[in-house]
Write a structure and sequence with these properties.
With 266 residues, the protein is mostly helical. The chain has twelve helices and no strands.
Amino acid sequence: MTALVLRTRIYRRLLGAHIRAALQYEADFWLLIVAATLIQVVGLVFLSAIFARIPQLNGWTFWEVLLIYAMVSIGEGVVSLFFEGTWHLAHRINVAELDYYVVRPYPVMLQVMGSTVGFNGIGNILTGGVMLGLALANVDIAWSVGTIALCVTLFASAIAIRLSIALATNAVSFWVPGPFNPFAYAMHQVGDLTRYPISIYSVAVQLSIGIAIPYAFASYFPVAVLLGHGDYAWLGMLTPLVAIYCGVAAWLIFRTGLRRYEGAGS
């Protein structure tokens, strides 16, 4: 427990140092936040345009889909703000910057994740939070202490799943050299499919984003179980288990890749 607290404290200080450095460029800071906010607003306008034409999307109302959309926005925002370094792993490997991380007495994986701060995540979190509040005010959920506890558990698990997938896909850089990891970004784009109910897609797509790369457990299934919506809503209760599975898989992939890292001297 002491080691966990110490690592958490060091990680917080690491992020703090990057935040102070980045805030020296205030224009970049505000541009990133505004740009991220505008992207989310454009998505919301598109969603509104869809429901202006149809009352429901395969049985899902506007506010229910907005709740799914908000889960994705907030999840992406949290991962970007606190773990943006994950997306820079390919560059760190390509320029052998990982050499510095390997010799430091702190887990390499945590150093990688905390090596950069994505301020665009603030925009995603703010807009996602507004959408979340509006959606919850307009959907039918029987609130209780148990429901609130379930909501918090599902939300934390959803973020863990999104982070684990980002780490695992970016760890492919250990096997595919280059300053850019197109595989990780391609998988991230696949994850955007879960901004909407996955029941609108073909069975092949549902299996891909529900089992192969379980992005659906980071948005659709948690919302489905909270609303009691859909034939497979009960799968949302498995979200914490899926989070554990994804976390262990990401850690194993990263550790295996790190073992084959040869550094600048090879």
